[in-house]
Amino acid sequence: MVHTPRVLILCTHNSARSQMAEALTRAAAGRVGLPLDVHPAGTEATRVKDEARTVMAELGLSLDAHTSKTLWDVPNAQNFDYVITVCGSADQACPAYGGQTTRLHYPFPDPSGEPLERWRSVRDALAVQFGAFVEALKAGEAVPAGVQPA
């Protein structure tokens, strides 16, 4: 049986960056035929922001069925191959994972309260970073350790 890597993308409110990153990661994995089990979560739950829905819809990716959830709402919350934090607060609050889990921190600025152009900039930076992550997994290479600022 082939192992499907499990990926957790964690931010503070699970309202924007982690939601966009999850959709972009799934899309990138689909394009290269890589099976991934991807989950977004927050250290606290709020709601998925309308701006995130808008800028993702521009790429043909719907967040309509997405809801904000905490890490503890995710199935099998302590069993991930990769845990990726996308903001400093989540990086600090992220629980410890065992040796089988690779922890990565890809910090992105919070576009909340900013014009849609800023949301697009963050979305596009997420697409580059998580696309590189998926490409590395597909190629069996080390995953990227950093991100270019948005």
Descriptive labels:
single chain; 150 residues; alpha/beta; Rossmann fold; four-stranded parallel β-sheet
Mean pLDDT equals 91
Cα-atom radius of gyration: 14 Å
* Relative strand content: 5-15%
Gross morphology: globular
- For the record, give the distance between the C-alpha atoms at the N and C termini, rounded to a whole number: 39 Å
Number of domains: 1
Strands, total number: 4
Unreliable residue runs: none
- Name of the top-level CATH class: Alpha Beta
**CATH superfamily membership:** Response regulator
Question: Main sheet: which strands, in order across?
Answer: 2-1-3-4
Name given to the CATH architecture: 3-Layer(aba) Sandwich
Question: Could you give the order of the helices and strands?
Answer: EHEHEHEH
Structural class: alpha/beta
The CATH topology is: Rossmann fold
Q: Roughly how much helix do the residues carry, as a percent range?
A: 25-40%
Summarize the main sheet: 4 strands, parallel
Task: Provide structural commentary.
The chain is of the alpha/beta class. The protein has one domain (6-139): Response regulator (Rossmann fold, 3-Layer(aba) Sandwich), CATH 3.40.50. It has four helices and four strands. It has helices spanning 17-32, 50-57, 88-93, 116-139; strands spanning 6-11, 37-42, 82-85, 102-105. The protein has a four-stranded parallel beta sheet with strand order 2-1-3-4. β3, α3 (88-93) and β4 (102-105) form a beta-alpha-beta unit. α1 crosses α4 (116-139) and α2 (50-57) packs across α4. The radius of gyration is 14 Å and the shape is globular.
